[in-house]
Amino acid sequence: MALDFDLLKELTETSGVPGYEDRLRDVVRREFDGVVDEVRSDAMGNLVGTVEGASDYAVVVAAHMDEIGFMVKHVTDEGFLQLDALGGWDPRILKAQRVTVLTEAGDLPGVIGSVPPHTLTEEQKEKEPKVEDVYVDVGLPSDAVEERVDVGDLVTTAQTTVEMGDHLTGKALDNRVSVFAMLEAARRLDDPDVTVHFVATVQEEVGLRGAEAIGVDLDPALALALDTTVANDVPSFDAAEYVTELGDGAAIKLKDSSVITNRKVHRRLRDVAEAEEIDYQLEILPAGGTDTGGLQRSHGAKPVGAISVPTRYLHTPTESVHRDDVAAVVDLLTAFLDSETGEHDYTL
């Protein structure tokens, strides 16, 4: 598959934190144009692109479009910004990061500063880092900051997405790479036997909220989530701790902390991958939830499965995926949907 790197770059570099996914929604809506039969959004901001099938049997494919970020909670008298986290951050990686502050008057560049280590006391060096101790410097006098920045403005890390060997690296690959895969599968899907709702969900990073709402609104017979997953195939981890490995193919989820997937669904995903000679690996994620969990219990019990993109350095500005794994996710999702007739028995 020839990967549309420009689209992936646009998706990842566009800002969209939980509850404020507007810019991403505009991009996805544009990409749905001419590909799906109907596009609609809801009061939370979930965006649904529907491909009508030969039957009313409905399948939901969901990929969340929000990224972890921050909200400004206070502007100091000196003009520095204090932050409230939106999603799970490791505060150890925040120092010396460039950020973008999204204000009503336009975007402001900023930095999360880190003072020289030789000016710190031993007590300061040993202090455990916390998000609430982070300050953003936008390089303006305090009166100018007060005019430009309001409490409630959003902040994201500022990072470009680049090709790095066989890998692609940047911010927000969690989960824009899955949105990308969903859009590619929607383009490939032709005259399906079942109706497919492709959904770009919101607020996954703060509790799977968009998926829970959309599952009630659409009430699908079957749901698949697309997300990233841990690839700890790096020094200092044992093989049993890898979860997945870059370059080994699409990850078929067996469980995470929010869901145990339907065994008939993940078995069929494996059968399809083997029949189509698509590289895959099995995913058992010990911690972290996905939209799969939100969809499984919406509007009653649902058969659910998930396909994941193995990703190194999750929840950092340097998330990295292997281009072959991205292609495998697109191939597997497309083949699964092409072969869904609505007659498979997923009851247990």
Automatic annotation (TrEMBL):
* Keywords linked to the UniProt accession: Aminopeptidase, Hydrolase, Metal-binding, Protease
Binding annotation for Zn(2+) 1: H64, D174, D227
Q: What is this protein called?
A: Endoglucanase
GO biological process terms held by the UniProt record: proteolysis
Q: Which domain of life is it from?
A: Archaea
Q: Which residues bind Zn(2+) 2?
A: D174, E205, H315
Q: Which residues form the active site?
A: E204
**A Pfam family this chain is assigned to:** Peptidase_M42
Provide the family line: Belongs to the peptidase M42 family.
Q: Name one GO molecular function term.
A: metal ion binding
* Note accompanying the cofactor annotation: Binds 2 divalent metal cations per subunit.
Q: Where are the transmembrane segments?
A: none
